[in-house]
Specification:
CATH superfamily: Response regulator
Structural class: alpha/beta
Radius of gyration: 14 Å
Strand order of the largest sheet: 2-1-3-4-5
Largest sheet: 5 strands, parallel
Distance between the termini: 9 Å
CATH topology: Rossmann fold
Shape: globular
Strand content: 15-25%
Order of helices and strands: EHEHEHEHEH
Helix content: 40-55%
CATH architecture: 3-Layer(aba) Sandwich
């Protein structure tokens, strides 16, 4: 499954964050879908649809930690990048320990996010090519 369409899913309960990240990522050629809750994301996006998930940690209902667990439990290999306003070093460490490919603190530096997504895309594409 190639990551060729550069699909990004942004899940954040803050509409302004979704809007800003969508505009930013679209200017770099990504296809972006935004969701205001993890529940709405899981209700719309099939488990096997390729793409990178940019996921807020603190959301009402299903928070980012529970959403990441659900991604992993489903067997999906969709890469996850956590974002959060949380300033504790423990959040970054925990994000990486639960299988995320990155953690960025809000306000997110746009170039850092784009660079991280590009690194994930390149790695995923090369891994998928090896599997063929």
């Amino acid at each position: 499954m190639l990551f060729e369409n550069k699909q990004i899913f942004v899940v954040d309960d803050d509409e302004s964050v979704c809007r800003a990240l969508k505009i930013l990522l679209m200017t770099f050629g990504f296809e972006v879908k935004t969701f205001n809750s993890a529940k709405s994301f899981f209700g719309v996006v099939p488990n096997d649809e390729p793409g990178c998930l940019v996921l807020d940690i603190h959301m009402p209902g299903l928070d980012g930690w529970a959403a990441q667990k659900k991604v992993l439990d489903s067997g999906s290999n969709r890469p996850v990048i956590f974002i959060s306003a949380e300033k504790q070093e423990s959040a970054a460490g925990r994000a990486l320990n639960v299988g995320a490919v990155g953690f960025l603190q809000k306000p997110v530096d746009g170039q850092t996010l784009v660079d991280l997504i590009n690194a994930v895309v390149e790695k995923k594409d090369s891994t998928d090519e090896i599997r063929k």
